[in-house]
Design brief:
This protein has about 100 residues and is mostly helical. The protein has one domain: 3-Layer(bba) Sandwich (FAD/NAD(P)-binding domain). Helix content is about 30%, strand content about 5%. It has a two-stranded antiparallel ribbon. The structure holds flavin-adenine dinucleotide (FAD).
Length: about 100
Amino acid sequence: MLKNNKTGEETVLNATGFFVAIGHKPNTDIFKGYLTMDETGYIQTIKGTSQTNIKGVFACGDAQDNVYRQAITAAGTGCMAALDAERFLVEHEVESFIEERAS
Ligand SMILES: Cc1cc2nc3c(=O)[nH]c(=O)nc-3n(C[C@H](O)[C@H](O)[C@H](O)COP(=O)(O)OP(=O)(O)OC[C@H]3O[C@@H](n4cnc5c(N)ncnc54)[C@H](O)[C@@H]3O)c2cc1C
């Protein structure tokens, strides 16, 4: 049984399987006004990196990928973002700050 949520109309569709597609709008509204996005809401990063318009803020996965949107590409860019974040922290000597606080 299918229900049209706009009209309330109910119909029966005979099928042996179905595939759920949940849309093409990334869940990035909380970053609006902070991170540069395209018109659909994909966070924009500097080509070849995960760097956003804010220094030290990195984006990856479906939130910034409007082309591939697959698990393997999300994992790949996630790895890029982790490495970019680590290098950022080392460059800004946050590591020594954390070590200092821990001792
Ligand atoms: C129906 C469907 C079928 C798919 N089939 C395939 C497939 O066969 N092969 C394939 O490779 N890919 C497939 N994909 C795509 C794949 O699932 C995604 O590309 C991948 O999961 C993206 O990973 P991600 O970590 O970027 O985002 P997500 O996996 O969406 O992870 C985002 C996480 O952030 C959390 N989150 C969101 N907002 C907040 C917030 N405000 N605070 C805290 N946490 C928050 C969410 O709860 C979620 O856990 C499919 C997707 C769908 C919807």
